[in-house]
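*Target chain*
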Amino acid sequence: MPGIIDLIGNTPMVELKKLNPNPNVTIYAKQEGNNPGGSVKDRAALNMIRSALERGDIKAGTKLIEATSGNTGIALAMIACLYDLEIELALPSNSTRERTLAMEAFGAKVTLLEGIEACRDYAEEKAATGEYFILNQFSNPDNYAAHVKTTGPEIWRDTDGKITHFVSAMGTTGTIMGCSRYFKQVNPDIRIVGCQPTEGSSIPGIRRWPEAYLPKIFDPARVDEVRDVTQDEATAMARLLAKKEGIFAGMSSGGAAVAAIKLAAELKEGVIVFICCDRGDRYLSSNLFG
């Protein structure tokens, strides 16, 4: 029988039936909330921990420290407990209570701080003491490598190689960097579209990073186009996905869907796949669906 780790990946894709504005374009939502930890971050968390173990960077009993806006932390907490690793997670204090409780349920210590930048600074400072090992999803190649190995090939397989456009929100940028690497290998004509918040918008899971905090794994040359999404657009679309398509997902998924649907309206034909990165129940204590 499979363990919980064996259920990570091979998530389904569903076609948008009502929100797609163009009958000559197909839009698929890759349902990453179907991962056991509830998000696309299960993939990166598993690959970062497993690769560090294989290299001998960490072992059972090692204390991990990581900054997270939520989904990566939940995934790391779930996987760390399976490998007998201690973990402390630095989380922005404005995160939904569900996120903190989920991390603590897996045995993680959670430290709440003001903003993700402060969380990143805190994690790096603690790692510098030598008492903790930082996986550092923002600069760790094992983050995007997870998507070269799994997410990209799954989408290619499930569209029978017909995908023309890939759309993803950009946070750590691991998903878009890994998928871009894979897609450009199998078909350089596939367009890679990233989305980020407009200035002043706050969308959990999507960031417009200050230059000093731009993820080191991010290579702008691997993204063909970046589209800005407003907070109101992402919120409205998350609600529409639930009410019109039965897809219960968070704001970052709403943001990616906004970009995918606008793109579809501009094309003559094509097959668009966007990442629906987590589940809506992670936001029930917020006003997202209220």
Notes: The chain has two domains: 4-34+149-283, 41-134.
